[in-house]
Amino acid sequence: MNIKYQNLLDNFEIMTDTYIECDDGWLPLIWELCERITELDIPLRLLTVKEKFGRLRIYPDTYNEGVEDIIDHYEELSGSVCELCGNSGKTVGKHYLKTLCSKHAENWNL
């Protein structure tokens, strides 16, 4: 596992045993999301954090309105952040969608 994601898992109890499948550019979004959910002080674990259809997808073991609002916010935000580098981006692709900055989108043609 990427050392940056291991640091995330080590720092947030809600990330214990979380399956992560996305690139480093979204790490700051995931970190902020974890901070906000942790502030709610409710028993919860994030089961999966991944890219799907060019956006971040987060699946918790329990839903409630506060958690769902936070997750929705960061999933939406990921559509404007390059998954590779974290710079401003947009969703690109024809058959396989990915959110990328203009530099990384130059080489993306799927």
Largest sheet: 3 strands, mixed
Would you identify the regions where 5 or more consecutive residues have pLDDT less than 50?
Answer: none
Please give the number of β-strands.
5
Radius of gyration: 14 Å
| Share of helical residues | 25-40%
| Separate helix tally | 4
Biggest sheet strand line-up: 1-2-3
Give the SSE string: HEHEEHEEH
Overall 3D shape: globular
When the domains are counted, the total is: 1
Q: Percent of residues in beta strands? A: 15-25%
Q: Ends: how far apart?
A: 26 Å
The secondary structure category is alpha+beta
Quote the average pLDDT.
91
Word description of this protein:
The model has no long low-confidence stretch (mean pLDDT 91). The radius of gyration is 14 Å and the shape is globular. It has one domain. It has a three-stranded mixed sheet with strand order 1-2-3. The longest helix is centred in the N-terminal third of the chain and has 13 residues, at 27-39. The chain is of the alpha+beta class and 110 residues long. The protein has helices spanning 3-11, 27-39, 65-77, 102-105, and strands spanning 19-21, 46-52, 55-60, 90-92, 98-100.
